[in-house]
Amino acid sequence: MAEPVRAWRLTDQEGQRLLQIVRRGKHEPVRVRRAMIIMASASGTLVPAIARLVAAGEDTVRDVIHVFNARGLAALDPQRAGGRPRRISDEDIEVIVAAATTRPEKLGQPLTRWSLRKLADYLACRPGGPVTIGRKRLRQVLHERGISFQRTRTWKESTDPDRDAKLDRIEQVTSAYPDRCLAFGQFGPLSVRPCHGACWARRKHPVRLRASYHRTHGIRCFHGCYCVGDDQLPGVTREHKGAVHTLAALKSIRGARPGGYRLFVISGNLAANKTPAIRRWARRENAGLCLTPASASRANPVEAHFGPLRTFVMGTCDHPEPPGAGPQAAGLPALAQRPRPPPRRAGRPAPRTSPHPQRTPATLGPPQA
Question: What is the pTM of this model?
Answer without folding.
Answer: 0.51
